[in-house]
Amino acid sequence: MENQVAIITGSGRGVGKACAMQMAQAGAKVIISDLDEAPAVEAVEEIRAKGGEAAYFAGDVTAPEFAKELMHFAVETYGGIDVLVNNAGYTWDGMIHKMSDEQFQAMIDIHLMAPFRLIREASPYFRDAGKKDKEQGIEKYRKIVNVSSVAGVMGNVGQANYSSAKAGLIGLTKTVAREWGAYNVNCNAVAFGLIDTRLTQSKEKGETVNGSAVGIPEKVRAMFEKSIPQGRAGTAEEAAQAIFYLASPLSNYTNGQVLHINGGWYT
């Protein structure tokens, strides 16, 4: 991925950060995008300390002007965009009969509307640039990777909002692949099962995102782990490797696909 420019949302921590580290190690210039500035700065410093190139852009991906501002920053900083990873997100669980409109809409906004806006805003650097390349006889692939979930494929109790948004993201992925595939834009998704992040840590730790508690009750998490054939949650690094594959030249003929990363939990 030498000299490719990669935007990764939600990359100050967890899977996003692991993904940024891997891409930087492979030669990409990485834009760390995160809601919180402190972890974004820390991630950039780690990458630079290892000889990689990175810059950060802090902000809320659900803000109406965020996509335009992020794309502008990436182009101003590194001159273009080759890879977009829509990874930012959190959960706000509740049973359907108790779920508010606000709770449902919040998940749609971050897991579906934000990726849509970012992809739409990236069209000059993906679709239009790809069309121009083909007209000039240049073969160059650009990559979009959307982070979905096993919940978006099979549903999940207490996650009607999250499951709906992640299912919608798969539909968006497949549509972009059909619309932009002719211009050598590969758009794929990863559907993660139980991966060790702050979204899947013990809820008893009391961590919140945007005022909403995140995590899984300890008893539920233990039950999930027992149902996974490999008997454990995946690591952030293992999850990031799947994204790396879809963002790299290794996947040039992979388009509109959903790569399931779950230790055999869902096949």
UniProtKB/TrEMBL annotation:
The keyword Oxidoreductase applies. Residues 4-198 form the Ketoreductase domain. GO terms for molecular function: oxidoreductase activity. Keywords: Oxidoreductase. InterPro entries: KR_dom (IPR057326), NAD(P)-bd_dom_sf (IPR036291), Sc_DH/Rdtase_CS (IPR020904), SDR (IPR050259), SDR_fam (IPR002347). Coiled coil: none annotated. SMART domains: PKS_KR. One of its GO terms (biological process) is bile acid metabolic process. It holds the Pfam family adh_short_C2. PANTHER family: 3-OXOACYL-(ACYL-CARRIER-PROTEIN) REDUCTASE (PTHR42879), 3-OXOACYL-[ACYL-CARRIER-PROTEIN] REDUCTASE FABG (PTHR42879:SF2). Belongs to the short-chain dehydrogenases/reductases (SDR) family. This is 3-oxoacyl-[acyl-carrier protein] reductase. It comes from Falsibacillus pallidus. The lineage of its organism: Bacteria, Bacillati, Bacillota, Bacilli, Bacillales.
